């Protein structure tokens, strides 16, 4: 199999890796990784339809003589599954193949309150549809008219794109309302975030050019401590590809300090976890689940999430726009009432052209300003390479 050239220029490898050499997006990929990446990309192309990792695996197994990149038999085994998963990851990091139809079926879809619209300060005139008066209650006509009142949108006013990741979806009811309040996105997960989920967040944020602020929630255990690092590294990589120059990520729960503060009960670490030895050396054989915090201190995780998001969302800006919208509605009230009187006197079956309501206002919504504050971020794309690597080292040393 010939190895295709990467369709984009790959950055020179960094002097130091943060994740393992086979998982860090900045690894200096060798011939083996390129060969397997090309094999996975070719399989995806030959399958020729939207699929996910498990689907691609079974399609490969179903071939007459399934072979891997080395020409060895590819079977329905855990070993083959792991082989494919790594090959697909390498293909995406190296830019080999077309993965637009590849889907993530492991993690739930994002729960969306995502305000990814650009800032558009103009007011929107809403053209009402013509009204056919036939057994139509005045209440319905009033609803149509009031829905046609011009309004300023609050979309795009905020200075940041806000995202919360959580490694387990048992916390959905706790976290989702807080993300909703700030027009952000909540990404519940089943374990570690997939490459597809991370990349999508970066692409969406890059589309409107807002600074991206990410907050990570996970159990206090060896894997939970590593997850924010893995996501930060992927965001660093994809942010550079997408031209998103301002990304910051911070784990906000569960931390060792929170476990101590709330006196949360621990459980033994999983013996097969490769990170368990280092974790136990620092913290002892004592992992803690998010569920323990919510069970013993209900509402505290919500407070932690709210406190993390609050500095990056201006409720005052939104309230100012809503107040102006209320004034517009009040000024148009005489026109609305006049139109309703005309409808009441209309003959049945008459088609009535409703008035286009125009707002006379000099108000221009102001976009929220950058939030200030002294926060130590695990990832800050404004740092130079050495500073960012030093922060990764510092965080990992705590494990």
Concise synopsis of the structure shown:
With about 400 residues, this protein is α/β, with parallel strands linked by helices. Helices cover about 45% and strands about 10% of the residues.
Considering the chains and any ligands shown, give keywords for the structure.
alpha/beta; 13 helices; 3 domains; six-stranded mixed beta sheet; Dna Topoisomerase Vi A Subunit, Chain: A, domain 2; 10% strand; two-stranded parallel sheet; 399 residues; 12 strands
What do you see in this structure?
With 399 residues, the protein is an alpha/beta fold. The chain has three domains: 31-103, no CATH class; 109-157 and 314-367, no CATH class; 160-312 and 369-397, Dna Topoisomerase Vi A Subunit, Chain: A, domain 2 (3-Layer(aba) Sandwich), CATH 3.40.1360. 43% of the residues lie in helices and 10% in strands. The chain has 13 helices and twelve strands. The strands form four sheets. A six-stranded mixed β-sheet has the order 3-8-7-9-10-12, with helices on both faces. The protein has a two-stranded parallel sheet with strand order 1-2. A two-stranded antiparallel sheet has the order 4-6. Strand 7 (161-166), helix 5 and strand 8 (185-188) form a beta-alpha-beta unit. Helix 1 packs across helix 3 (78-94) and helix 5 (172-181) runs parallel beside helix 11 (300-309). The longest helix is centred in the C-terminal third of the chain and has 30 residues, at 315-344.
